[in-house]
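Researcher: Checking consistency across runs. Here is ParA family protein again:
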Amino acid sequence: MELFEYTELQSRLSAIADFDDLTEPEVLAQLVAQLRPYLRNVIGSTIGKGGEGKTTLATNLAYMLSEEQALRAEQGKSAKPILYMEIDANGDGRTDLGLDATVFNDHGKALRDAITNDGNLKVVQGVRPYLDATISGKFCADIAGRINKLADTHALAAYLLLALLLAQISHLYRWIVLDFSPGDKAIQRAGLAAATHLVSPIHNTDNAALRGLSTVTRLIRSNRRLNPEAELTAIAFLGFRKVKGEPTTELTNVRAKIEQLLSDAGMDPGLILDEYVRDARSIATLCRNHGKPAREFALAATGKLLDDKGELVPRPRDENGRYADAEMSVNLADDYSSVARGVITRVRQRNAQLREKEMQGAS
């Protein structure tokens, strides 16, 4: 791993400097239209409440996508890295990827300054083969307040700061996985202004989870001036039991509730993925504690993970010193692999539709 610093980015603050409440809407629309083609590889993981697994979904998605690029490189095909970016004071993403105890951990200070104050963007390259990441943490708690303050002067354009940043580096990455917090509307708006494709996880069956999904769909609609292309592309269930590989009534019941919610909102119930992640809390906890996404943890649990020197990584143990259950680890990894395939299939279909629409508009 090494720290790379983007030092020649154009000023994001200058781009929004002339915007205020009196600015003609057409001028903002022109800026948004210029940005959109550069951001169609940005996948946002978000939900309108905490505890639903957005970060776990995002880190595993980023890891699986990076494995795909690594495989392409091995086959002699063109390949680009994946960028994982978390905008959250909790910093769970850096924990999932084992970046907590590294020299790169600045607790999100550089990321905060890059988004809100034209700072250089710092990226940890080679977190895994073909996977780069920014570092989040406590300093990211300042992002919402800073954006809101800028919005007092520059109105809606302030929420484009993240989009303006990502648009300058998006060509360097195959996909950018953006993990943004449900805790503040300013963060939600900035994330929704940047992402083209949105993935929402559902982990709980209570009404709060349904309200969280309603919040996302409502914010998408209210954010159209900042991003006319953002859409909820997939909904993934995390942590639901499987019996002989099949879902239980708990999942089928909550699925019916969400299908109705989507229908009531005029959205396609088919957004819900058939693939889902089984309940494997003990293994999921070990994955985070060991700083490994599910697929990588499964390789370690089965004695197949090699370190940078080509030597076998010791099999992970739980808090009682027992080896992690290899079969459960593999099953969890397979679930995340299936969900990742489901997500990226939907994303590619949407991108094809957007390109077709763009061509029709140009003709």
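Researcher: Does this match what you'd expect to see?
Model: One thing to look at in this run: Residues 2-280 form a domain with the Rossmann fold fold (CATH 3.40.50.300).
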